[in-house]
Amino acid sequence: MSTHTSGLVRDLDVLELLGSEEVFEQGGLGVQDIASETGRDKAQISRVCRTLYEVGLLVRHPVTKKYALGHRLYAMALRTREAHLAALAQRTLLELVVQAEESAHLTVLRGGGVLTVRTELSQHTLRDGSMSGVTLPALRTASGRAILATYSDSELTAWWEEHGIWRPPPEDAPKLPRETPQLRRLRRQPGSIRSLTGLKRVVRRVRNVGYAVSVGELNPNIVDAAAAIVDPTGTAVGAIAVGAVRERIGGHYELMGEAVTTHARRISEILGSAVAD
After folding, report:
1. How many CA atoms lie within 13 A of 74 on its CB side?
2. What is residue 266's three-state secondary structure?
3. Per-residue pLDDT tens over the stretch 246-273
4. Which of 125, 141, 128, 161 shows the shortest CA–CA distance to 228?
5. Which CATH number is correct for 5-76, 1.10.287.470, 1.10.3720.10, 1.10.10.10, 3.50.50.60?
6. What class has domain 80-276?
7. With CB atoms 3.0 to 4.6 Å apart as the test, which of 42, 69, 117, 148 could cross-link to 35 if both were Cys?
């Protein structure tokens, strides 16, 4: 029996494209631009946009005719687990910024990548702004390692078989919005974890100390530390992460680790209290 998923994938391609920061700053995109960016037929994209507009997932500017994300999508997003987690984490992230004097991040694991759900910025930023809101390769991040450390050995093996080795997308696959050259290099070039055995070795270290560290995996000058947030069942639902310039932090990674562990535990306790109520 056919599942008719191709139409849904096409719709998601359009929504993903219109959700990028660049498109938002442009006030949306017209049908021709959307078709060009997604590699799809213009008439097909026109029908997709019209349907999404009619159900409130897109809005259309009356003069420029550009499409942008609509109010209904925003209302739905507010009811996601990520939105709830972001609301709970805001105060904790701000406290971590004050403590560490660096930007603090709430992240979630999605497939083979880590997505930053919320960031509270320090007075100076560590990463290139173009990376903001982008899903980063999980194995290169402290957040990904911290979350994967909560997995069982069988879960780790299954995750590695699906996501551990970079595989090029099909030639006819639509290009992803905001796929910068820097991000493409990160996806294709192996980091320090190059095998399932290596991943399990890192995971054992994380379990022993309670937090994960990634040194220069995303940016040669930056050290990241992260600790997992768990719900009352012990399942990791995200991570709290903070980064620092390597020259400033020196070899004192434990200070960063203790900070993220404290704040991740605090959010985990809040989640438990919310369930108990």
Report:
1. 8
2. helix
3. 877 777 788 899 999 999 999 999 888 5
4. 141
5. 1.10.10.10
6. alpha beta
7. 42
